[in-house]
Design a protein that fits this description.
This protein has about 325 residues and is α/β, with parallel strands linked by helices. The protein is built from 13 helices and 10 strands. The protein has one domain: Alpha/Beta hydrolase fold, catalytic domain (Rossmann fold), CATH 3.40.50. The N and C termini lie far apart (about 55 Å).
């Protein structure tokens, strides 16, 4: 029997963190979250990236709490939130957040999401209820690049997609396979070289992967996650101001494959679509920054988000 992690195996999965954790029943999912800051401050919803739990923001939360009432969540299939087999789609996850704002935050809010969470920040900026969202920060979002069949630039399989295929194959939906040693052995041949070079060779999975349902990876690799949510159509529907932070990216000259979340071409297309919808688009380039600014440099992340939010209050 392989390794097993997730809500059914709490003792081997979870560790304590600096903030108390709460659980709210949203119907299709029970969502875990943490809160920081005074309720009199403007509301902020933080949406983690794929394979990240709310505590990825743990270092940034006390900095943000000086200016916001902060809510950081675990998306379905991540952290202590419910696993939902067969129901990992952007539309389902976006509607989870709509209900979370209604039930927990209960007022208009800023949103900031990393990576896949950045795509969900874009989803909320387009499809949330009227007046739910004040403004949306997309933190290095893989817009277009996380689509299997995309209308702009490199698709998922011309970049990080090999990692998702590996996770799905060797870990299995809901950690049903759990072959960590097999995955480590396969990484050098089944991953693109630049991804394999950074692949962890630890004796056990890192904490963030323990708290992650690998069915997420399958949903992205097969394209089911975005089957009903075309990125271009979504961006044409944005209804609030956007802050877009774009981090490390490089296109391999020999293959044309993308290293990073999205290319300059894809970022420019996102800007074109959002501004054509009549919304401000504040683009900030940080080419030396890792994928997670809030993880690498929480002070810069907080300062950038606070400065932008003040322009909308």
């Amino acid at each position: 029997m392989g390794l097993r992690f997730g809500p059914d195996y709490p003792e081997q999965t979870y560790i304590k963190h600096a903030y108390p954790e709460h659980l709210v029943d949203l119907g299709d999912v029970k969502m875990n979250y943490a809160v920081a800051g005074d309720a009199s401050l403007p509301a902020l919803l933080l949406i983690p990236g794929q394979s990240e739990s709310w505590w990825g923001y743990e270092q940034a939360m006390p900095l943000l709490a000086k200016n916001f009432h902060v809510h950081a969540v675990d998306l379905r299939g991540q952290g202590r939130s419910s696993r939902t087999p067969g129901r990992y789609t952007l539309d389902n996850m976006g509607n989870d957040l709509v209900r979370f704002i209604d039930i927990v935050i209960k007022r208009p809010t800023f949103v900031s999401g990393l990576s896949s969470g950045g795509v969900l920040s874009a989803w909320l900026s387009a499809y949330a209820k009227p007046a739910q969202i004040i403004g949306a920060h997309y933190e290095d979002p893989p817009l277009f690049h996380s689509e299997v069949d995309t209308s702009c630039g490199q698709s998922l399989r011309q970049g990080v997609g090999s990692m998702f295929a590996l996770w799905s194959k060797y870990l299995g939906d809901q950690w049903s396979i759990g072959d960590w040693e097999g995955m480590k052995a396969a990484a050098p041949t089944e991953l693109l070289p630049w991804i394999a070079a950074a692949f962890p060779q630890s004796d056990e999975p890192p904490q963030n992967l323990k708290e992650y349902d690998p069915e997420w990876a399958r949903a992205f690799h097969t394209g089911t996650v975005a089957a009903s949510c075309d990125h271009a159509r979504m961006l044409q529907s944005v209804k609030v101001p956007v802050l877009f932070t774009h981090h490390f990216r490089r296109v391999d000259e020999s293959s044309g494959f993308l290293m990073g979340a999205l290319s300059d071409v894809q970022a420019a297309r996102a800007k074109e679509l959002v501004t054509s919808a009549g919304q401000p688009f504040d683009y900030k380039s940080f080419p030396a920054m890792a994928h997670s600014m809030h993880g690498q440099d929480p002070n810069l992340f907080a300062a950038t988000l606070i400065e932008w939010a003040k322009t909308l209050l």
